[in-house]
Amino acid sequence: MGGMRNLLILGGGTAGTMAANKLRKSLRPQDWAITVVDADDAHHYQPGFIFMPFGTYRPEQVTKSRRAHLNKAIPLIYGSIDRVLPDERRVLLEDGLELGYDMLIIATGVTPRPDQTPGMLEGEWHESIHEFYTYEGSMALAEKLRTWDGGRLVINIVEMPIKCPVAPLEFTFLADAFFQDKGMRDRVQMTYVTPLPGVFTKPRAAAAFGSTLDDKGIAVESDFMIERVDPEAKTLVSYDEREIPFDLLVTIPLNMGADYVARSRLGNELNLVPVDNFTLLSKDYDTIFALGDANDIPASKAGSVAHFEVDVFIDNFLEHVAGQPMSHRFDGHANCFIETGHKKAMLIDFNYEVEPLPGRYPYRIGPLSLLKETRVNHLGKLAFRWTYWNVLMPGHSMPVPVHMSMSGKAKE
């Protein structure tokens, strides 16, 4: 097969940037042109949003230039995507620009959609109803918490899957510590509301988190499927007609993939692209991969998953475009730091098959502890911001195993 081929990457966030930078090193420039498309130049370090409401991070620490983090040889086109025409291998932008491709990577992530829950955006949005999954939301919540004098604080997850499944718990733990430090914890009644039967999907981790919530005097309302928010009465109403009153609601709205995915008929009902769980190739088109939060794999939507996914994907992509079968399998590997407040954090490491277990990470000697609150884990979480910008985004290798390892973990 002669001639130059085009690889088009939609989305210049975590997965899109890593894939672009790694592939630029792996593909010969005379064989492949790589182009990235994104709506703007603001690349956000999303794990930082959790700290913004409490004043721990400043805005400039969580936002950098997309252009600055992409290999100089890769063009970055700014524009909103209208639709993909997969049969014609073309992408149309809203400004009328058309881009052809030989291979397409969809890496446009997911975004919170408060418009999908009746009553959520009506009247109380950014007043008594807030979210921290966007830059704007975390800034607005910081402003609110600065002067809030207490009452009923409800943290609510609308529906799974969401970006970073442990972030709502982290927010809860950090809020508890924040109010203690302000000397007003006794004036705040906290309730954690989840559609899950417990605080987390994996039993061992759920037990650890659950006892931490108990210790902190935080009530849990589980199996709560929200039907609507009543902004006048300030209550959450579930399908089984339970009502939970709030003075301040911090919600995690339904997370959905980009609207162009729906217009292109490439997604499921949440606009996530159905892919093979192990190769990340679209189930419908062998010219399309979906990486990071944009796909429908049953793994956490978290930066660590995007990182481990991309490492496996690069080898598969090279085999696939050479006409060979893909021999590498992504195992669903995720690891997440969970801030528990007062400069401590827990760490979990798991994959499709293995739930989070106690032990040490990344090696038998640590230095990090799994499923335990430690100061070292907190420092690890803070250090990760530097690692994200300087090691992961440029496409350098990390000294941790790509596939989940049982080394250092407690066996059943």
Radius of gyration: 21 Å
Biggest pleated sheet: 5 strands, parallel
CATH superfamily descriptor of the largest domain: FAD/NAD(P)-binding domain
Count the domains.
3
Average pLDDT value? 94
**Helix share of residues?**
25-40%
Q: Tally the beta strands.
A: 24
CATH fold description of the largest domain: FAD/NAD(P)-binding domain
Q: Shape from CA axes?
A: globular
Q: Termini, distance in Å?
A: 52 Å
In DSSP terms (H or I, runs of 4 or more residues), the helix count works out at 9
CATH architecture descriptor text of the largest domain: 3-Layer(bba) Sandwich
- Secondary-structure-based class equals alpha/beta
Low-confidence stretches: none
* Strand adjacency order, main sheet: 5-2-1-9-20
| CATH C-level class of the largest domain | Alpha Beta
- Residue fraction in strands: 25-35%
Describe, in plain words, how this protein is organized in 3D.
The structure is a single chain. This protein is an alpha/beta fold and 412 residues long. The chain has 3 domains: 5-109 and 258-321, FAD/NAD(P)-binding domain; 113-254, FAD/NAD(P)-binding domain (3-Layer(bba) Sandwich); 334-392, no CATH class. The chain contains 9 helices and 24 strands. It has helices at residues 14-26, 59-62, 66-69, 135-147, 167-181, 203-215, 259-263, 303-321, 375-392; strands spanning 5-10, 32-38, 42-44, 63-65, 76-78, 81-85, 90-93, 98-100, 103-106, 110-112, 129-130, 151-157, 188-193, 219-221, 226-230, 235-238, 243-245, 248-252, 255-257, 288-290, 334-341, 344-350, 359-363, 366-370. The strands form 8 sheets. The chain has a 5-stranded parallel β-sheet, with helices on one face.
